[in-house]
Amino acid sequence: MPPIISVKDLSKTYATGFQALKTINLDIDKGEIFALLGPNGAGKTTLISIICGIVTASSGSVTVDGHDIVSDYRAARSMIGLVPQELTADMFETVWTTVCFSRGLFGKWPNPAFIEKLLKDLSLWDKKDSRLMTLSGGMKRRVMIAKALSHEPTVLFLDEPTAGVDVELRKDMWQSVRALRDSGVTIILTTHYIREAEDMADRIGVINKGELILVEDKRELMHKLGQKQLTLQLHEALTEIPASLNAHHLTLANEGNELVYTYDSQGPRTGITSLLTDLAHADIRFKDLDTTQSSLEDIFVDLVRRDR
Question: Is 228 within 8 Å of 298 (Cβ atoms)?
């Protein structure tokens, strides 16, 4: 199956000479949730803005379901819904009027039944007659999603969609996003809440200084780059690690009451057996142990640090 979005050799240099994007190549599959991660100023919003037709690329091409975003702009843009970082709407209009008007901008005939279902799915139906200015930040963010979906797009961009949204509303919002994905909508999101990307995404892309430094299936990424830590709770605290254990690169934690050993769980050998043997020879006893897996945040920070 061909990708729903195909980005080829895309670059963007502004009039100031700043190169925001450097030869980006990316394919996004239909029906997936793709998370684009990167520090501030990495190029996330520029890339999304080009795909959505808001910013003009300096070179390269983008197609949406086979439609070129420049030569076949109307067809390409009609397939895309965008929820920007900033809340952009007439605060004096009602929820219902705002969403219906957005649908009309794309030349779609009125469809009250569809708008009603959309507002109910986003838990906005009881607010349909409320002016936007009276809504909470989380509710306003939901209205932005409803606007983006009003013309029934097949691709939805969410640029920091849960910024300023409380935890409870955030969970409800992600339930709605999952439901959209299950209905066949392709989701591309940027987020500073890396835990959300870890929970939600099928694939992860990491962008830094205008370059895509990694695109990987989330499970494969965690499998390849994730490290495990073995934490040993000691019977007696240590002030320093004996020289005989230097080969294991241990660290002391919790005021010397814990020894932490980091290892690659996918390697041919973890080194745990050798570690335990050397601990016994050093007469270091432990009363409990625990293992933890590196999170996506750990992996992301490490990737960006390496790319500096």
Answer: no
Least confident of 72-86, 183-197, 202-216, 245-259: 183-197
Residues 6+ apart with CB under 8 A from 191: 35, 37, 158, 160, 161, 162, 197
Q: 5-223: which CATH number, 3.40.50.10700, 3.40.50.1980, 3.40.30.10, 3.40.50.300? A: 3.40.50.300
Dig out the tokens for 18 from the structure.
Answer: 């700043």
- CA 105, 111, 116, 117 dihedral sign is negative
Task: Look at residues 52, 84, 53 and name the one whose alpha carbon lies nearest to residue 160.
Answer: 84
Of 25, 75, 31, 16, residue with least CA distance to 47: 25
Question: Residue 306: its pLDDT value, please?
Answer: 64
pLDDT tens-digit map of 191-208: 766 777 777 889 988 888
Listed in order, strand segments (DSSP E) in the chain are 5-13, 19-28, 33-37, 59-64, 67-68, 80-83, 155-159, 186-190, 203-208, 211-217, 228-234, 251-253, 258-263, 286-293
Band of residue 20 on the pLDDT scale cut at 50, 70, 90: very high
pLDDT in tens, 27-83: 999 999 999 988 888 888 899 999 999 999 999 999 999 999 999 999 999 999 988
DSSP 208-219: ETTEEEEEEEHH
Residue 56 near residue 50 (C-beta atoms within 8 A): yes
